[in-house]
Amino acid sequence: MFGNKRPHLLDERGQMAVEMAVLMPVLIVVALILFNCLNYLAASARFDRLVEQAVRTQAASPASGSYGMASRADSCEQLLRGAFSDYPDVQVKVEAEAVAWGGGSSEDAGGGLAFSLLPKQEAYTCRLTYTPWPFQKAVFGLKLFQVEHTRRLVIDPYRPGVLW
């Protein structure tokens, strides 16, 4: 009676190893996705906090000799790149453009006049681009996507420290 059950138990030997071999790649992929999501969210939260400070300090209150809009955007970009130097998967880009009062394009500000007395503002578009780890460029010939996070801040260059 007891002898019949013993061979039945031996038939299932090795089943756990097969299940583990099937489940392990799935667990590794889920762990990589979770790691990349958390790393991107951490970088985005840090980016949101630092963009306002960078634009407020570098663009609205420029250093001596950097009064051009392009040089102020470059100084914002350099400050943000320095803050993200410990994130190898992150690239930062800052662009600036002149906008009319209220956020419209600068061409609409004067109604076609050569000179307008309406105040002009500057819009700084800051982009954070995240490349998933560990596959930076491609996996098996497939190009991976990059995730982008954008913040746009409008400042009045004549009122330092004020963001719109």
Description of the structure:
This protein is of the alpha+beta class. It contains three helices and five strands, in the order H-H-H-E-E-E-E-E. The protein has helices spanning about 1-10, 15-60, 70-85, and strands at about 90-100, 120-130, 140, 140-145, 145-155.
Structural class: alpha+beta
- Binned, the helix content reads 40-55%
Strand content: 15-25%
Helix tally equals 3
**Largest β-sheet summary:** 3 strands, antiparallel
> In one word, what is the shape?
rod-shaped
Overall pLDDT confidence: 80
Please compute the radius of gyration using only Cα atoms.
27 Å
Low-confidence stretches: none
Largest sheet, spatial ordering of strands: 1-2-5
SSE topology string: HHHEEEEE
Strand tally is 5
Can you lay out the helices and strands and say which pair or pack?
Elements: H1 2-10, H2 15-59, H3 69-83, E1 90-100, E2 120-130, E3 138-139, E4 142-143, E5 147-155
Antiparallel strand pairs: 1-2, 2-5, 3-4
Helix pairs in contact: 2-3
Which characteristics define this entry?
42% helix, 164 residues, two-stranded antiparallel sheet, 3 helices, alpha+beta
Short description:
Helix content is 42%, strand content 21%. It has helices at 2-10, 15-59, 69-83; strands spanning 90-100, 120-130, 138-139, 142-143, 147-155.
